[in-house]
């Protein structure tokens, strides 16, 4: 059986699962030093709305940004592949991802750990916010998760709450790739 590419310390590389078609956990080291580690590898999964909790919080800085926080609520580790597919209100499409925000490796969450993504809600210079044809206030958000190939949504989505007054989004709406730690997210 051919070896599966891995990143440092046997963790999935950014191209490992997507390019090999391997399932999460297949990139783990073949030998483990403890039964607990082997059990954790066996419990690995893709992060979805079924094994995580997602929150959305507007940020004061940078302005017009929202932080998505996904916390692993499962009993094993899970992988946050790619970037969140977000749909605000009745949107028919998802916003583009900021290509420069791509991390070097797939974000891996142990039980209780969190991963993050930033959503650039609207133009920071106000050019779109006064033109109602390019922006609107929305009161609902759905977040969907990518699988290892990065080309599809998998599992259950999540519907985090937004502020009661909603959030304003316009044509400059974009998202970052999933990040860990949080500081890496807010720089985009």
Descriptors for this entry?
mainly beta; 9% helix; 188 residues; 32% strand; single chain; 11 strands; Immunoglobulin-like; 3 helices; five-stranded mixed beta sheet
Give start-end ranges of low-pLDDT stretches.
1-40
Output mean pLDDT: 78
Q: How many helix segments?
A: 3
Assembly form of the protein: single chain
Number of domains: 1
- Can you tell me the CATH class? Mainly Beta
Give the helices and strands, then pairings.
Layout: H1 16-20, H2 35-42, E1 45-46, E2 52-59, E3 65-72, E4 78-88, E5 107-109, E6 114-120, E7 135-138, E8 141-146, E9 153-158, E10 167-170, E11 174-175, H3 182-185
Parallel strand pairs: 1-4
Antiparallel strand pairs: 2-3, 3-6, 4-5, 4-8, 6-11, 7-10, 8-9
Q: How does this model look, in words?
A:
The protein has 188 residues and is mainly beta. It has a single domain (44-185), classed as Immunoglobulin-like. Helix content is 9%, strand content 32%. The protein has three helices and eleven strands; from the N terminus they run H-H-E-E-E-E-E-E-E-E-E-E-E-H. The strands form three sheets. Strands 1, 4, 5, 8 and 9 form a five-stranded mixed beta sheet that branches. Strands 2-3-6-11 form a four-stranded antiparallel beta sheet, with no helix packed on it. Strands 7-10 form a two-stranded antiparallel ribbon. It is globular and about 45 Å long. The relative contact order is 0.22. Residues 1-40 have low confidence and may be disordered.
């Amino acid at each position: 059986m051919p070896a599966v590419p891995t990143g440092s310390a046997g963790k999935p590389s950014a191209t490992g699962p997507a390019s090999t078609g391997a399932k999460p956990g297949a990139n783990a080291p073949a030998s483990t030093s403890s039964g607990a580690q082997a059990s954790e590898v066996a419990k690995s999964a893709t992060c979805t709305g079924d094994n995580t909790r997602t929150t959305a919080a507007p940020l004061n800085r940078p302005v017009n940004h929202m932080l998505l926080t996904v916390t692993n609520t499962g009993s094993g580790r899970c992988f946050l592949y790619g970037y969140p597919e977000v749909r605000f209100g009745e949107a028919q499409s998802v916003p583009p991802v900021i290509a420069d925000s791509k991390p070097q490796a797939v974000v891996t969450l142990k039980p209780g750990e969190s991963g993050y993504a930033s959503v650039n809600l609207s133009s920071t210079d106000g050019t779109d916010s006064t033109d109602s044809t390019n922006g609107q206030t929305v009161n609902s958000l759905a977040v969907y998760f990518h699988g290892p190939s990065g080309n599809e949504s998998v599992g259950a989505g999540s519907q985090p709450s937004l502020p009661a007054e909603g959030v304003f989004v316009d044509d400059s709406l974009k998202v970052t790739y999933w990040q860990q730690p949080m500081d890496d997210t807010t720089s985009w």
